[in-house]
């Protein structure tokens, strides 16, 4: 069920879909999620951003992974580490003329206050 939010500074020339696919694969590989399609990801570039003291050639990429509550801190840390590792290899960050700060965090969604519905497409015969 994880919800993945990829946020990044708009000065980065990245293929967000490629990065999301790599992160999804890494999250599924942790064994914490039943089906690959349970992982829902999206990306958003920010035109207005400041890194530190607004020095030139700065950029950021941040992953927020929301999971249903109940996992230990150690498991959530392992999920964050897997997401960050995937992020690090999903793009050639070193080739950019920017200093890029990469980060990943995992936070919990309280199951008692979470609602979800899944629709089934109508198939013509």
From TrEMBL:
Protein name listed in UniProt: 5-carboxymethyl-2-hydroxymuconate isomerase
InterPro entries in UniProt: 5-COMe_2-OHmuconate_Isoase (IPR004220), Tautomerase/MIF_sf (IPR014347)
SUPFAM superfamilies: Tautomerase/MIF
Pfam families in the cross-refs: CHMI
Gene3D superfamilies named among the record's database cross-references: Macrophage Migration Inhibitory Factor
Annotated TM spans: none
DNA-binding in keyword set: no
Listed PANTHER family: 4-HYDROXYPHENYLACETATE CATABOLISM PROTEIN
Any one GO molecular function term: 5-carboxymethyl-2-hydroxymuconate delta-isomerase activity
Top-level lineage group: Bacteria
Keywords: Isomerase
């Amino acid at each position: 069920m994880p919800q993945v939010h990829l946020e990044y500074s708009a000065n980065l020339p990245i293929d967000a879909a490629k990065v999301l696919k790599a992160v999804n694969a890494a999250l599924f590989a942790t064994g914490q999620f039943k089906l690959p399609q349970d992982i829902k990801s999206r990306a958003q570039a920010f035109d207005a951003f400041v890194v530190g003291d607004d020095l030139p050639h700065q950029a950021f990429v941040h992953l927020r992974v929301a999971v249903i509550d109940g996992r230990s801190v150690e498991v959530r840390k392992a999920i964050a580490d897997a997401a960050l590792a995937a992020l690090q290899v999903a793009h050639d960050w070193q080739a950019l003329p920017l200093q890029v700060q990469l980060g990943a965090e995992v936070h919990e969604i309280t199951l008692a206050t979470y609602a979800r519905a899944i629709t089934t497409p109508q198939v013509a015969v």
